[in-house]
Amino acid sequence: VQLVESGGGLVQPGGSLRLSCAASGFTLPFYHMSWFRQAPGKGREAVACVSSDGTTYYVDSMKGRFTISRDNAKNTLYLQVNSLKPEDTAVYYCAAVPRGGSFCPLRDWEYSYWGQGTQVTVSS
Fold it and tell me: Which residue of 12, 26, 95, 104 pairs with 32 in a disulfide if CB–CB is 3.0 to 4.6 A?
């Protein structure tokens, strides 16, 4: 199982990014998938998750500007982030756990597989 994030970079406040997480070694529909982030000097926090049946969940503070989605044909998870703020600066990680059902967890310890992360820096 391998997860590889991409799409991060330096963006100005108010800008947008689409992060990607390419999965290999397993098939997305059988896994819950999620995005977490870790800002400098802070702990890792959940952003959103999508269950194996496609149901999405967001941390309340992330609703509105973040959109999680996945393309099963491409075996890829996405995170669209709009109206970026400096406080969104962080390393963004995708994670996966082999589990079925409609509910995906937003706790990092429940995830088995992690990518290496992609850096997002929001600055003018």
Answer: 104
